[in-house]
Design brief:
Layout: H1 3-9, H2 16-28, H3 33-77, H4 79-82, H5 90-108, E1 111-113, E2 124-128, H6 135-148, E3 152-155, H7 167-172, E4 175-176, H8 180-188, E5 192-195, H9 199-205, H10 219-227, E6 231-237, H11 239-242, E7 243-245, H12 250-259, E8 266-268, E9 275-278, H13 290-308, H14 315-320
Helix pairs in contact: 1-2, 5-6, 8-10, 10-13
InterPro entries: Plipid/glycerol_acylTrfase
Domain Phospholipid/glycerol acyltransferase: 111-234
Protein name: Phospholipid/glycerol acyltransferase domain-containing protein
């Protein structure tokens, strides 16, 4: 036993634990252990939220991989039925749709307005604003499956098809990489098709002012004209407050434009209020050119943003909207 401990224990009113702490303070050179612990607590208080907001977006990726794992288990359990059923994946889609719908209801109080504008049968092109992580679009797909009994085909960026393990998920939910011929084929077959003209660029480089980064893209409009289908605009309120990106930093923009690598950090996962709004369908007009239709659709999406989104977006305000019993358009 050290001299310090012996000296401390010489005082009968002091416990052994208190003596050890006192000696440890002297040994490490800290005169005030409580001050050190208070400083450590302060650091944890400051940096923990910063770590959490960058970790939460990965939970969406985890949920996607859990969905993929479920599909593999489902496929294994139904291998014998596959040869005899044309609707093998219906049960899996409905199960995952229910789970994602539950996630949206719990975490974001998700609401969808105007779902009656989605036809019960027949084709339509849904054009939407792309958030940093399009989790709102996942909730929309879930609602279409649950309430409409339909599977909405989707167009995704090429890089998504290179993500390890995503192949089965993309196949089951009818995701294509977007050649116009494939899009027209899906619509002419009577399916719904969802597309975001802004794509990855809009996801990563738009911000809380919600600019539409469509450039001069009009391929989606040509698809609608060739397929002779209506176009339904869509926008989700507060989608930028749920997840945000650091794409406003010039370095990440340069990386993407130079190498086409979507390696922009995304943070958030905040449980803000999500409301998806579907605008009035824009009917097929044989006299309208692709450029004119593209402009008209962009104006329709912009009108939804102007009507339903307070600019600039604010995370705290979006959180408080979770507690509002009513909302105004």
């Amino acid at each position: 036993m050290s001299d310090g401990v012996k000296s401390c224990l010489g005082n009968g009113t002091v416990s052994f634990t208190s003596c050890v702490i006192s000696v440890w303070e002297e040994w490490v050179g800290l005169a005030h252990l409580e001050d050190f612990l208070s400083y450590l607590e302060y650091l944890l208080w400051v940096f923990t939220p910063l770590v959490v907001v960058f970790i939460l977006p990965f939970l969406i990726v985890v949920l996607l991989y859990l969905s993929i794992l479920f599909l593999h288990v489902y496929k294994h359990k139904n291998q014998l039925r596959e040869a005899y059923s044309n609707n093998l994946w219906d049960g899996a889609r409905k199960t995952l749709a229910t789970l994602w719908d539950g996630h949206g209801a719990i975490w974001h109080g998700y609401e969808i307005h105007g779902l009656e504008k989605i036809p019960a049968e027949g084709p339509a092109l849904i054009v939407y604003y792309h958030g940093a992580i399009p989790v709102d679009y996942y909730y929309f797909l879930a609602n279409v499956i649950i309430q409409k009994g339909r599977t909405c085909h989707s167009v995704a960026d090429h890089f998504l098809f290179k993500v390890p393990g995503f192949k089965l998920l993309l196949e089951v939910f009818s995701v294509i990489h977007g050649p116009q011929e494939e899009c027209v084929k899906a619509l002419r077959s009577g399916h719904l098709l969802g597309i975001s003209p802004g794509g990855v660029r809009e996801a990563l480089f738009s911000d809380e002012t919600y600019p539409l980064l469509w450039g001069k893209r009009k391929g989606f409009a040509q698809v609608a004209i060739d397929s002779k289908v209506p176009v339904i605009p869509m926008f989700t309120q507060n989608v930028r407050e749920g997840f945000r990106s650091l794409g406003t930093l010039k370095f990440f923009r340069w990386i993407y434009e130079k190498f086409r690598l979507p390696i922009v950090p995304i943070y958030g996962g905040f449980p803000v209020k999500f409301r998806t709004y579907l605008g009035e369908p824009i009917p097929y007009d044989p006299k309208m050119s692709a450029a004119e239709l593209a402009e008209k659709v962009q104006q329709a999406v912009q009108e939804l943003i102007n009507r339903h989104q307070k600019i600039p977006g604010n995370v705290l305000r979006a959180l408080l909207e979770r507690f509002q019993r009513t909302h105004t358009d």
